[in-house]
Amino acid sequence: MRNTGLFIWSIGMLTLAATQAGAAIIYSGTLELQGPDLSVDIDEDGSADFVTQWIFLAFGPGFSQAGLDVDYSPNMRYINNGLPGWPSFPGTKVPLDYGDYIGPALSGDLRWSSSSNDAMWWITVQDMVTTYGGLWNDVTNKYLGFEMMDDDSNLFYGWIRLDADSQNNITLVDYAYEDVPGASISAGAIPEPSTALLLGLGLVGLATRRSALVHRW
């Protein structure tokens, strides 16, 4: 009976942990979406939040240039750096490293902006020679920090992981965000098993082991 009671208590703890897990990081799982044309409904409300598009077109004799960036969305802002020479204006979206802070209080020249004055990726053709550039050119496991507003003006913070090779072939790997308004998140953070869940699993294992010992003797 004692082992049965311990097992029932453990199941109760598992149920509690599952309930508590509802208030946590929302994670997309691995997506591996291929760019350059990306369109993602992050909060799954039926409308796309993260959309990429070609911008900043320039043409001339033997010369053309195009930039790829995130399209404007009224409910989305991203972490930008300051525009060189004009630090009060957003430059381009910053490729963050794993563990970097994403939240309301940004430091240094970082700023939240729904737009930018420089593209994330560039393709330039001059005298039939193609070059690829941009702050996000040839990066792996870099994170785009975002701020997302819901219909009630609540702000949620999250990240989008992006890879790009030396020719600006882009992959959206995955994304995550905190489901608590105003809560900051670390770049790359994903949900972890709760302490109660791990405790419950451990106790189930303990109850099973003790039961086996009783039967043995």
Describe this structure as you would to a colleague:
With 217 residues, the protein is an alpha+beta fold. It has 2 domains: 1-24 and 193-217; 29-190, no CATH class. It contains 2 helices and 15 strands. Strands 1, 2, 6, 7, 9, 12, 13 and 14 form an 8-stranded antiparallel sheet that branches. Strands 3-4-5-10-11 form a 5-stranded antiparallel sheet, with no helix packed on it. A hairpin with a 2-residue loop joins strand 4 and strand 5. It is globular and about 60 Å long. Mean pLDDT is 84; it is low at 4-22 and 195-217.
Question: What topology does this entry show?
Answer:
Layout: H1 2-20, E1 25-27, E2 33-34, E3 39-40, E4 50-60, E5 63-70, E6 76-83, E7 86-93, E8 101-102, E9 111-113, E10 121-126, E11 129-133, E12 139-149, E13 155-164, E14 170-178, E15 185-186, H2 195-216
Antiparallel strand pairs: 1-14, 2-14, 3-4, 4-5, 5-10, 6-7, 6-9, 6-12, 8-15, 10-11, 12-13, 13-14
Question: TL;DR?
Answer:
With 217 residues, the chain is of the alpha+beta class. Helix content is 19%, strand content 41%. It has 2 domains: 1-24 and 193-217; 29-190, no CATH class.
The backbone outline, from C-alpha atoms, is: globular
Number of domains: 2
Spans of at least 5 consecutive residues whose pLDDT stays below 50 are: 4-22, 195-217
Return the string of H and E elements. HEEEEEEEEEEEEEEEH
User: pLDDT average, as an integer?
Assistant: 84
Main beta sheet: strand number and arrangement? Answer: 8 strands, antiparallel
